[in-house]
Structure formats: structure tokens, C-alpha cells
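C-alpha cells for chain A. Residues wanted.
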């Protein structure tokens, strides 16, 4: 069965097409829950008006579902709390000039 760390690593393949950085580094992954091979990923977008939500949901499933022991992947988008640049990793802040 895939670990939470392996799931998070798979999510580094989910890329924000505008910024060119992955969702983990950008701090857009708010939570990962796993129960008997069923995974739920809670994520956000940089703004509520961002049109890439459906694309991100597809990418999350594309990269997590092939992991060992994963039976299903569900994504939940939230804007609570709102995303802010402080949520980014230090590497992402450096890459984007923060």
C-alpha cells in the first residue's frame, strides 16, 4: 500500500501551468487522507477564479491512482483557508521571487 509520503511525491507531478511549479511546492495541497486504498486529496487554487480546477482533479487521479494499493482517488477543492504565498515552500518562494 502506498504511504502518504509516496502519495505526496506523486502529487509533485501536478503542475500549475501558469507558474510552472508543482502543487506541493506551491502549498496548494491542503490534505491527503487514505483509508484502505481510498485516497482523498484536498487542494486549493491560487484564486477562486482560476479555471484549471477540472484539469487539476484529473491530474491528481492520473498520478495517484497507479500507486500500489490505491483503489480510488477523490479530490476536493476548497478555498478555506484562502491560499497565500506564505504557504509555498522556501524553494518555490525563491523561484518566484518572494
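Reply:
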Amino acid at each position: 500500500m502506498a504511504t502518504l509520503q509516496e502519495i505526496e511525491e506523486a502529487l509533485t507531478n501536478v503542475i500549475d501551468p501558469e507558474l510552472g511549479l508543482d502543487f506541493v511546492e506551491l502549498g496548494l495541497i491542503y490534505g491527503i487522507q487514505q483509508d484502505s486504498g481510498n485516497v482523498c486529496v484536498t487542494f486549493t487554487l491560487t484564486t477562486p477564479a482560476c479555471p484549471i480546477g477540472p484539469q487539476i482533479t484529473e491530474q491528481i487521479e492520473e498520478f495517484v491512482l497507479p500507486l500500489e494499493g490505491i483503489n480510488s482517488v477523490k479530490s476536493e477543492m476548497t478555498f478555506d483557508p484562502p491560499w497565500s504565498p506564505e504557504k509555498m515552500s522556501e524553494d518555490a518562494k525563491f523561484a518566484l521571487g518572494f
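The mean pLDDT is 95. Residues 7 and 83 are 21 Å apart (CA to CA).
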